């Protein structure tokens, strides 16, 4: 008999995951919170993944096999098959610590305005622990600010309230929007719900050459920039990304070939500060504090761009800032 409490549906997509799949499965079966179903979808593996899946005779496991469709489509199938009130991600190479589900569901049950919660993760390379880790921010306002530019969540650590998908739809399968399918989805979730990370190590994130997220052609950076530009536009009340928000996102990611130079630095600064004020309305931080963070961020990306563009000339100009402002002002870009 299953314990009382909301049902969690664990989504585990598999593509040639034989080396670590058993460890990933067993880390779920050993969770201290027992009311879950584990939905494993084999996405056309041609190694021993299917055989490993067949070894488990546990009523909590529901296993499916399909031809290769890719990560986003596989996750969407798992979502449509799910019965749970909450959906937890698990990757074929990663390991969830025993109290992960218990802590995440406790958080979401106590904080109904939150749509998603992730965790910190220790980074392993193969079977070896490293001294590196994913320690992303835990507070909603920090995460909302970071999401303007990049992904502050470990994909396989997240738990999402299932009703969220009625508001934001499933993972995008549009080839122009994924990968990164996780950053794209988190961005849509964060526009409607608060988000958080539990600041505890509840997952081992394993870096392996053949993990699903690293397989195939990956025009990753351009799509990250596009999603970032959309997030900046949303926070400024702009419909869809435009050249100004593309310019900010391009500067942030050092993709200067996409920077148009048509938008003044003053306008880019204004857009970043406006985005900070928008995020501050959700609570947890003052507008002035977050606006100052945006100002600092702006001057950092401006400095990086000018250093790139002017090289040693910019370094020389920086060194003579002690000149009277009327002179230095003519030298600085």
Characteristic terms for this protein:
alpha/beta; 333 residues; 43% helix; globular; nine-stranded mixed beta sheet; 9 strands; 2 domains; Spore Coat Polysaccharide Biosynthesis Protein SpsA, Chain A; single chain
Would you give an account of this structure?
With 333 residues, the chain is of the alpha/beta class. It folds into two domains: 8-214, Spore Coat Polysaccharide Biosynthesis Protein SpsA, Chain A (Alpha-Beta Complex), CATH 3.90.550.10; 220-331, no CATH class. Helix content is 43%, strand content 19%. It contains 13 helices and nine strands. Strands 1, 2, 3, 4, 5, 6, 7, 8 and 9 form a nine-stranded mixed beta sheet that branches. The protein is globular, with a radius of gyration of 22 Å. The N and C termini lie far apart (70 Å). The model is unreliable at 211-218 (pLDDT under 50).
Outline of the structure:
With 333 residues, the protein is of the alpha/beta class.
Task: Label the structural class.
Answer: alpha/beta
Q: How far do the termini sit from each other?
A: 70 Å
**In the CATH hierarchy, what is the architecture of the largest domain at level 2?**
Alpha-Beta Complex
Helix content: 40-55%
Topology-level CATH name of the largest domain: Spore Coat Polysaccharide Biosynthesis Protein SpsA, Chain A
Radius of gyration, Cα only, in angstroms?
Answer: 22 Å
User: What is the subunit organization of this protein?
Assistant: single chain
H and E string = EHEHEHEEHEEHEHHEHHHHHH
Kindly report the average pLDDT value: 92
Largest sheet: 9 strands, mixed
